[in-house]
Design brief:
Largest sheet: 7 strands, mixed
CATH topology of one domain: GMP Synthetase, Chain A, domain 3
Structural class: alpha/beta
Distance between the termini: 29 Å
CATH superfamily of one domain: ANL, C-terminal domain
Shape: globular
Low-confidence stretches: 1-8, 652-656
Mean pLDDT: 91
Bound molecules: ligand 6R9
Strand content: 15-25%
Strand order of the largest sheet: 5-4-17-16-18-19-20
């Protein structure tokens, strides 16, 4: 990026020091950075020692054949034993593992570690009786109910790799994953609750099986949890009820040990085009880094903390920071089935107050939608139990960060902005709540044991105060091992861009500020080029969101005959701003001009009721670009709500 890079984000100069008490009792101190720098492999070996291994590794890292890594070579362990049984054996069987909160207000269930041990053992025995064993791929397509976690851990327990497909994905998306993964069995439910209504899941599985079958792969069995009680088609040759085979199975099960590099799961990422990429994670290194980072970044105190991550288990955050990391650490956590606004808009804050949640982890998109509703709703609830707040999934705008800290965290709680990816498996760049003086909008620095940098087109690290591409310069334990069934695509996608340097290309743009702290700007395909100036969508979005009438903004670069690309902004107003008043578009445009500079001034601003987002909360700028360039809107199948594009295209929009 050039010197002209515009940086309203970097004008942000507030700092938040760690609370003294938290710093004094922090799990990880500043010295960890030096320890890890002095002996990276030794540092990760010590992190691995926090787990229970049945056979110790011979070698920490085998990087003889890059980019194919092996961690804790020769070691053996069982992931489910580490997440469940060992806590019971340590005398913590009575500790609640999961406070499950159903969407219907009167439904809840507390599951202790001892309960979890029995449930996972039953499920493991049932899977075995259905012919599933070590190495057999299992797909999981479920709502946010405890059985989803039982199923994942049961697979891990018997060495059957799983792929969890988000319950909101279509039959089409599920079918292609079943085929690619060669799933032998699918675990699902009749349906699930969303916004107060029961919606079906099982019919999508039936259809997906047909799709997979036409593509040449037959799924043998389907294990069905009864959740809503709705009517479902049932084929006795294929389908089996969970309550028939799991409830009657023995609650005793002896876990077998698996090699450190045994496949644990595949998570498909929604690539922008073509076939989804199946990201493979393995056993020892993945669990080591998930568990360690969860303990480190959230300063976790398993005896006293109540942790809640609002992600869905159908994406990587749910895997690493609901299932594997937190359970490996033996913490008590909340698992919530429904949407934030059901039955009313304060539901999340009510849950925090009821369960006395201490550590809360969510996404900027959620925070911005609460900002839109105004602080009156959270202000009705006592959230004084909170001590640490986390953010993941997108860059968090300084405005959203400040609001989160102030309104949700009562101006006491550090906010940890955690950068990572499906591919990295665990958090890579983040402040440490007891060490770092946080800057709103910055993910700060690579965690101890992780090495990240920002490089230019030639792969040369940029000086402080400049921008470029985010890279990871050394292998890390929870790194993806390959793309399922496609080693070449793994090499091409991540390791070719900076092949000479041997750097992992993350696909994100970033800046190093004058202190060397990192500001992740979003995917490099979200970088615009307007009259030769590199502009980041995030910077302009941040400028828009800093206007008092704006709740959320998405910016795209649309082809422009004069400037190459031009800035087009889609804006959701805050509820108390009404329709924004006459001249709102000009008002916002002028605001961007004063915040960043005339070059960043949008060509067009559209006021919209909603933005198109994937189920993991990422804005689908591709679709907005279609609207901005007046094309027919492309494929919307991965949208959380497919009607949104109709609303936007139907001209509910005001423009400059
Ligand atoms: C965990 C997860 C990965 C992409 C990543 C980046 C964006 C995630 C971020 C962030 C800025 C953060 N991203 N966390 N950008 N700051 N704290 O989200 O995984 O779904 O694979 O997405 O998300 O663009 O490359 P995944």
């Amino acid at each position: 990026m050039t010197e002209e890079t515009l940086s309203n984000l970097l004008h942000e100069n507030r700092r938040f020091e760690p609370p003294a008490e938290l710093a004094a009792a922090a799990n990880v101190k500043a010295s960890a950075y030096d320890d890890a720098a002095a002996d990276r492999e030794g540092f990760w070996a010590a992190a691995a020692e926090r787990l229970a291994w049945t056979k110790k590794w011979d070698r920490v890292l085998d990087w003889d054949n890059p980019p194919f890594a092996k961690w804790f070579v020769g070691g053996e362990l069982n992931v489910a034993y580490n997440c469940v049984d060992r806590h019971v054996e340590a005398g913590n069987g009575d500790r609640v593992a999961i406070h499950w909160v159903g969407e219907p207000a009167d439904e809840a269930r507390d599951i202790t570690y001892a309960d979890l041990q029995a449930e996972v053992s039953r499920a493991a025995n049932a899977l075995t009786s259905l012919g599933i064993g070590k190495g057999d791929p299992v797909a999981i397509y479920m709502p946010m109910i405890p059985e989803a976690i039982f199923a994942m851990l049961a697979c891990a327990r018997i060495g059957a790799p799983h792929t969890v497909v988000f319950g909101g994905f279509s039959a089409e998306a599920l079918g292609s994953r079943l085929e690619d993964f060669k799933a032998k069995l699918v675990v699902t439910s009749d349906g699930g609750y969303r916004r107060g209504t029961a919606s079906a899941l099982k019919p999508a599985v039936d259809e997906a099986r047909q799709i997979s079958s036409r593509a040449g792969h037959d799924v043998g069995r389907v294990l069905v949890v009864r959740r809503t009680g709705q009517e479902v088609a049932f084929d006795e040759d294929v389908d089996v009820w969970w309550h028939d085979v799991v409830d009657s199975a023995s609650p005793e099960h002896t876990p077998e040990s698996f090699d450190s590099e045994h496949p644990l799961f595949v998570m498909y990422t929604s690539g922008t085009t073509g076939k989804p990429k199946g990201i493979l994670h393995t056993t020892g290194g993945y669990l080591t880094q998930c568990a360690f980072t969860h303990w480190e970044v959230f300063d976790l105190k398993p005896e006293t903390d109540v942790y809640w991550c609002t992600a869905d288990i159908g994406w990587i955050t749910g895997h690493s920071y609901i299932v594997y990391g937190p359970l490996a650490n033996g913490v008590t956590q909340v698992l919530y089935e429904g949407t934030p606004d059901s039955p009313e808009r304060g539901r999340w804050w009510q849950i925090i107050a009821d369960k006395k949640v201490t550590v809360f982890y969510t996404a900027p998109t959620a925070i911005r939608s609460f900002m839109k509703q105004g602080r009156e709703i959270p202000d009705r609830h006592d959230m004084s139990s909170l001590r640490i707040l986390g953010s993941v999934g997108e860059p968090i705008n300084p405005e959203a960060y400040i609001w989160y800290r102030l309104v949700i965290g009562g101006d006491r709680t550090p906010v940890v902005d955690t950068w990572w990816q499906t591919e990295t498996g665990a958090i890579m760049i983040s402040p440490l709540p007891g060490v770092t003086a946080g800057k709103p909008g910055s993910a700060m620095t690579a965690l101890p044991g992780v090495s990240a940098d920002v490089v230019n087109d030639e792969g040369v690290p940029v000086p402080h105060g400049s921008g470029g591409y985010l890279v990871l310069t050394s292998p890390w334990p929870s790194m993806l091992r390959t793309i399922w069934g496609d080693d070449q695509r793994y090499i091409d996608t991540y390791w070719s861009r900076f092949r000479d340097q041997g750097f992992y290309f993350a696909g994100d743009g970033a800046k190093k500020d004058e202190d060397g702290d990192l500001w992740v700007l979003g995917r490099v395909d979200d970088v615009m080029n307007v009259s030769g100036h590199r502009l980041s969508t995030t910077e302009i979005e941040s400028a828009l969101v800093s206007h008092p009438k704006v709740a959320e903004a998405a910016v795209v670069g649309a082809t422009d005959p004069d400037t190459g690309q031009a800035v087009v902004a889609f804006v959701i107003l805050r509820e108390n701003a009404g329709d924004g008043g006459e001249g709102i578009a000009k008002e916002l445009s002028d605001h961007v001009r004063t915040q960043i500079g005339p070059i960043a001034k949008p060509r067009q601003i559209m006021i919209v009721p909603e933005l198109p987002k994937t189920r993991s909360g990422k804005i689908m700028r591709r679709l907005l670009r279609d609207v901005a360039e007046k094309r027919e809107v492309g494929d919307t199948t991965t949208l959380a709500d497919s009607t949104i594009m109709e609303l936007i295209s139907a001209g509910q929009a005001t423009s400059t």
